[in-house]
User: What shape does this take?
Amino acid sequence: MATENKPEKQPLDWAAYTGLAPLANDLLAHWNVPGVAVGILRDGQIETHGFGLANIETQQQMTADHLLQIGSISKVFTTTLVMRLVGEGKLDLDTPVREYLPELELEDATALETITLRHLLTHTSGIFGDFFEDFGVGDDALSKAIAKYGTLRQLTAPGELWSYCNSGFNLAGAVVEKILGVPFEQAMHEQIFQPLGLDHSFFFAAQAIVYPVAVGHVETEPGSDEIAISRGYALPRAVNPAGGIISTVSDLLGFARFHMDDGKVGDDQIIPADAIHAMQEIQVKAANFTQSWGIGWDIKDLDGVRVIGHGGTTNGFQARLSVVPSKGYAIATLTDGDSGWAVNAAIGDWALSQHLGLSDPTPEPIELTDAHIATMAGVYESLMAVMTISPDNGSFRINAKTKVNPLSAEERELPASWMKPISDRECIFTGGAAAGMRTDFIIGDDGATRFVRFGGRLYDKVAN
Assistant: This one.
């Protein structure tokens, strides 16, 4: 069982390792993650590795050929599909979505007439982003979900703030269905998987099960050292555009190579080069979730070198793809445990440092006055969770309870965590698997704290 006073694990010093295998194996043991598959593309060559276990019950070894859920990396695939249709003149990024989906309803009439595909693909639509209701497995699942969008809260005006939004990508998927007249998954297979030769990428467990497949693993209690197989494998079909792909590190590297080759496969130009380049250009600052966001990709500039990528979280899986187009380099890591986020981050940082000499320094904490800290402390709430953020000797202590978990039906009280200020409105988490994760506080027109942006999501301040 989790205990509040249990000391948090500190991250391993990944910079002390000169080899991938000892680093990966030590990270798996340190963070209690069963396994990881790693793929690296450099100097035109692909190398793939598997470490640890794909299933703690069967003791099946993880291999580079195992299929794992890639979660929200699927969003870049969805964006790529949209950009193919943009290149063919079938879609326009700046046309209001309602022109493609006249049946669409939203809570806010102005937003309904304003939101574009660009808003959706850059997380700036302002729509509540974590609508994971299950509408069954039929071909109409996505359209049934979109029919409920009128019930979703419009958190901010379109373009006002960056806020991570699964709902926006599912809406983009519905536009694809409408334009092509086929289910989204069929469109992705025909328009992206097949032309790119991604033969081990799927949406449905029935397709994946004939290959080596890893299962997800979750903590039996928040903060517990005991893990178990996640028995809920598939996400609802209606969220496939946002996070439904099951794939391998080799296929992810093939996808990365396609983007580094300016949208070409051999001599075939699948997507115009200017559309591929547009995806890699900064559209908006990304609220400390990462430095910036392009069209689909997250973006960091490290030592003057642009790194694009995306992460993914599903029930018991954590994934990460990072691509350095100017260096012809990519790394994919797929893990099968709750704390895989920390494993992916350390392996990715190690690889970028070892292979390219790139680093992403952690900001140093600063001191703020007690009075300034008090303006940010309080109770923050969303449909997902409620958090109490309290001053704690120059830091912030966070006590959180999930209300609705899109990946699990359970409500859970999470172990306490801490973050330190790195500017007057920004903080960084210290200790545990979330060490290094950043958050920020947003001020309203009245000068008071309006939101905390946590995990990229907006939480309303509801009490001091």
Q: What stands out?
A: The radius of gyration is 21 Å. The chain has a mean pLDDT of 94. The first strand starts at residue 35 and ends at 42. The CA atoms of residues 46 and 172 lie 32 Å apart.
